[in-house]
């Protein structure tokens, strides 16, 4: 069954240091996409980074990078040079069937999230 | 370019009442999805619409319904509200599946 697991309920990191947020997934679909979203206290889900199951290289977006280990079914988010504004909930999510236009869906399955606190 | 707009932002209702939440997607986006977020259950998929057709539905009772209009705006309705329906309801829009989804700020519903 499709599932996303985030085992870290909360994390602390010092400002300017790097932090890794863990995410493992389970799916039988060979075609899937993995997403990371940030949710500040305002509630809006902010898209950070995307990795497709067939992508050869790990995705990067500015200070965000995704450590994709397909054999281990893990997709960890790495935030470099943490800033105070990075304090928020972070969610890992998965979408299946990304290479099947006829049956494509936008349905996302989310993990339970990790609350990141950046300390000055 | 305006983002996804959800109205109202906050809502307080009494048990047994019904409620309608609205979502205006980004201009040009034809796909709208709805999610319920609670402390106990986390983020759960409600339903997905594309070009006025429901493409996918989550595991929620029939009290939860939705629709999409020809201008891509979407509404979701919850009838006979229960205390457990108190949640943040998030709407996401995209050009069409399986494109990137952009979320609104949500509607926080409190049922008393």
Q: Number of DSSP helices of chain B? A: 0
The outline of chain B comes out as: globular
Count of individual beta strands of chain A: 12
Helix content, binned percent of chain A: under 10%
Helix/strand order of chain B, N-terminal first? EEEEEEEEEEE
- The radius of gyration of chain B is 13 Å
Uncertain segments of chain A are none
What is the quaternary state of this protein?
heterodimer
Average pLDDT for all residues of chain A: 92
Weakly predicted, low-confidence segments of chain B: none
Instruction: Tell me the span between the first and last alpha carbons of chain A.
Output: 41 Å
General form of chain A: globular
Mean pLDDT of chain B: 93
Strand content of chain B: over 45%
β-sheet strand percentage of chain A: over 45%
List the helices and strands of chain A in order. Answer: EEEEEEEEEEEE
Biggest sheet record of chain B: 7 strands, mixed
Report the structural category of chain A. Answer: mainly beta
Largest sheet of chain A: 6 strands, mixed
Name a few traits of the molecule:
heterodimer, A: 120 residues, mainly beta, 6-stranded mixed sheet, 4-stranded antiparallel sheet, B: 112 residues, 7-stranded mixed sheet, 11 strands, globular
Structure report:
The complex is a heterodimer of chains A (120) and B (112). Chain A is built from no helices and twelve strands. In chain A, strands 2, 5, 6, 10, 11 and 12 form a six-stranded mixed β-sheet that branches. A four-stranded antiparallel β-sheet of chain A has the order 3-9-8-7, with no helix packed on it. Chain A starts with a strand and ends with a strand. By secondary structure, chain A is mostly beta strands. Chain B is mainly β and 112 residues long. Chain B is built from no helices and eleven strands. In chain B, strands 2, 4, 5, 6, 9, 10 and 11 form a seven-stranded mixed β-sheet that branches. In chain B, a hairpin with a 3-residue loop joins strand 4 (31-38) and strand 5 (42-50). The mean pLDDT of chain B is 93. At the A-B interface, strand 6, strand 10 and strand 11 of A face strand 4, strand 5, strand 9 and strand 10 of B.
């Amino acid at each position: 069954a499709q599932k996303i697991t985030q085992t870290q309920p909360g994390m602390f990191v010092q400002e300017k240091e790097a932090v890794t947020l863990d995410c493992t997934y389970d799916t039988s679909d060979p075609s899937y996409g993995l997403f990371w979203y940030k949710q500040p206290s305002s509630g809006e889900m902010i898209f950070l980074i995307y990795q497709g199951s067939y992508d050869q290289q790990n995705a990067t977006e500015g200070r965000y990078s995704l450590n994709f280990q397909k054999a281990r079914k893990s997709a960890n988010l790495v935030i470099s040079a943490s800033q105070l504004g990075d304090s928020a909930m972070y969610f890992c999510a998965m979408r299946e069937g990304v290479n099947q236009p006829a049956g494509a869906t936008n349905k996302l399955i989310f993990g339970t999230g990790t609350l990141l606190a950046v300390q000055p | 370019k305006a983002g996804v707009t959800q109205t109202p932002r906050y809502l307080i209702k009494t048990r047994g009442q019904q409620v309608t939440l609205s979502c205006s997607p980004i201009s040009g986006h034809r796909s709208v999805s709805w999610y319920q977020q609670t402390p106990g259950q986390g983020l759960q998929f409600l339903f997905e619409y594309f070009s006025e057709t429901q493409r996918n539905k989550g595991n929620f009772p029939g009290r939860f319904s939705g629709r999409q209009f020809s201008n891509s705006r979407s509404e979701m309705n919850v009838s006979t509200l229960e205390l457990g329906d108190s949640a943040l309801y998030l709407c996401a829009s995209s050009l069409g599946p399986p494109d990137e989804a952009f979320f609104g700020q949500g509607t926080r519903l409190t049922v008393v």
